[in-house]
Amino acid sequence: MRWQQISVALLLLALLAVPASAQGVKYLYGNPELSATIAGTNQFAPGAETALTVNIANSGVNTIKMVGSTIVTPDDQPSTAKLATAALKSEGTPFTVKTDPQFLSDITGGASRAATFNVKVADSAEPGTYVLPLEVTYTYLQDAEDLGDTLRYNYQKKTATLPLTVRVTPDLRVEVLDVRSESLNVGTEGYVSMTLKNVGSDSAQNAIAKIARNGASPLIPTDGNAYLGTFEPGETVDVRFKVSVADTAEPQSYPLDVSIAYEDYEGKAVTSRATTIGIPVGGKIAFEVVSPKATLYQGQKSILEVVYRNAGAATVYNAQARISAVDPFTSSDDTAYLGDLAPGETATARFEVNVDGAGTLKEYGIDSEIRYRDNLDNSKISDTMKVRVALEQRQGTIFTNPVFLVAVLAVIIGAGYYIFVYRKKRR
């Protein structure tokens, strides 16, 4: 019984000792110490647009700490930057900040927060070093006044301006001063000539001018590189490329991308930003049959005359017309030479055609096409055209047949000549 009383007494003494051992903590001195660094590279080319990430670190410490049983511990520490926001400024620099101030929340001593800003470098930015001010606004606990069983907090608001050093690097920027197209028509191949100028600040070594297809544009480079060598700032060069045009294009202007691949000031292989230009494309090379419907007769051999016109927008060379004779027509001479045809010019082709005597009397469409060479000596074939031919039966007897009449006339002329010679000899 006595031991039980002793145990209870000891337990009561332990409970009474707990409040006496509780210690409050109070920091007398300390404040936030902020610094900022750029995550990743701080070098940017003119015209670049990038997401610039900045790390804001708080190196503030609390130098004097008080501990006591009668001290009430404040909720915040003097070294904490509370409710911090960061705003990136760019006045007086070739940079444009497209992001509003970023909320960072609290930054305790020894911690950091990250903020990301969308930044655009002006196309005309001169190479060099620039400083972007980062303004961080926050509040901090200046002191906590002990009123016995309560604390009165005194907060101060502060804005710290943290410098961020960025660098604009030299670059090459290409400007297209003049564009000329040659023999560039729908469905053909032609040339694109242009005058390029280096409007950047970098002296390019082993420079190569390039053209590239822009998205789904019908302009497709077939010879898209031109070696320039050294391409100095302010220098201009003339280049020429070969380009093909898809058959699906229309006569209008289409985009084409121009860029320069080169070795920069550090000897690195880089490519300039592409410049998009418009290239005019002429209409498709086309032909049409302009001769009226021809008439052929059953069972006879005839000459089929067809007049073709160059209905396109470019001159064709060494054109040859061809027909595809089908029943009831046959031909051993189905090709005719037309020569060179400028837009709007016509030429007549003559084909020898045999007609089956059992052919149906009606109108037929004989397929025809033209093989030609374009301005770059590429061999091309036109779309198929229809030559209209009416098959009829010749009216009249044998005496009205032109072949028979020609034969009779020949006999009469021969007989007359014989009689004339015979009478002359008898005299």
Automatic annotation (TrEMBL):
<dbReference type="InterPro" id="IPR013783">
    <property type="entry name" value="Ig-like_fold"/>
</dbReference>
<protein>
    <submittedName>
        <fullName>S-layer protein</fullName>
    </submittedName>
</protein>
<keyword id="KW-1133">Transmembrane helix</keyword>
<dbReference type="InterPro" id="IPR011635">
    <property type="entry name" value="CARDB"/>
</dbReference>
<keyword id="KW-0812">Transmembrane</keyword>
<keyword id="KW-0472">Membrane</keyword>
<dbReference type="Pfam" id="PF07705">
    <property type="entry name" value="CARDB"/>
</dbReference>
<feature type="transmembrane region" description="Helical">
    <location>
        <begin position="403"/>
        <end position="422"/>
    </location>
</feature>
<feature type="domain" description="CARDB">
    <location>
        <begin position="169"/>
        <end position="260"/>
    </location>
</feature>
